[in-house]
Amino acid sequence: MKVLVTGHQGYIGSILVPMLQAAGHQVVGLDTGWYASETPLPQTDNTPNLELDVRDISVYQLSGFQAVLHLAGISNDPVGDLDSDLTFEINYEASVRLAKNAKQAGVQRFLFASSCSLYGAQTGDEPLSESAHFDPITAYGKSKVMVEQDVASLADGIFCPTYLRCATAYGYSPRLRTDLVVNSLVASAHCQNRIKMTSDGSPWRPLVHVEDIARAYLAILHAPRPLVHNQAFNVGRTKENYQIRDVAKLVQSVLPTSEVEMAEHAEPDTRCYRVDCSKLQRTLSEFRPRWSVRQGIVELFGAYHHYGLSQADFDRPTFVRIQQIKQHRQAGRLTSDLRWSPSHLATVQSWW
Description:
Layout: E1 2-6, H1 13-22, E2 26-30, H2 59-62, E3 67-70, H3 77-80, H4 84-104, E4 109-115, H5 139-152, E5 160-166, E6 168-170, H6 181-192, E7 194-197, E8 204-209, H7 210-222, H8 225-228, E9 231-235, E10 241-243, H9 244-254, E11 259-262, H10 278-283, H11 293-306, H12 311-315, H13 321-330, H14 342-345
Parallel strand pairs: 1-2, 1-3, 3-4, 4-5, 5-9, 6-8, 7-11
Antiparallel strand pairs: 8-10
Helix pairs in contact: 1-7, 4-5, 6-9, 6-11, 9-11
């Protein structure tokens, strides 16, 4: 297929694109470059890039694609909470407009990067299936619910949307993030021999390796249409639901010299949920997740050591989304509505 991947230069996209290419797909990216800052990690992306804001792509530019894998947008709760109206504009309005334009352009498959955060604060003890009640508590989580509901109404005999509700990601990526819980705990253990928890460690989280997220996209893209048409899938492994304090203990078991440390005045995180991920494996034989959290911790320790990452590297904005956005704003590169300033755009040549 000819596939458009929005957000292809991001944490997930930089893993997903090589997998798509290895499977024989022709991949074009769309990324505005918010997170394309200098990094000590090797970058090998040669994918053609539309270099557009996802808010601006037209029907004409979507013509000729058989599939759109939509990852771009505000990527977590802290950035989403900077301006909830802007979060809804980018994550909700732009995503629905992209889906409508894709349908008009004749795109057949539309894979949307939803999130398990739409489940919000779980009240029961049983892992939540895809039919569970939505209870999002952040602008980010609410935007995911709204996109799923609106895009579902576009589904027809040609346009086939699917919603990937990913668990909290972890693992090495060329566009590394340390604002993800496993990656962050390993970073503090690697640099300081201290495993720093910012909450009291009681919240539950489903966790999934970034490579297994990419494998889910491939499996759904390759799946017979009736199996995935207008369907939502929790992406992860049911047995990989953890309380944060147990993740900290896993990190300590890999690096026994480290000590678990709780931040002063740490409180419970209101985001707390466990999910049942059996539907995806039950439905699609191609999807077989390969990673456990413990394996991911070992991988991250190895990567941090191999690339010589230090506390000074982790203290820079490079690996933390909200810090990167704030840095761009303070430098005048991004305007208040998270668009590149004219002075910045003057240095960028559009792929078109």
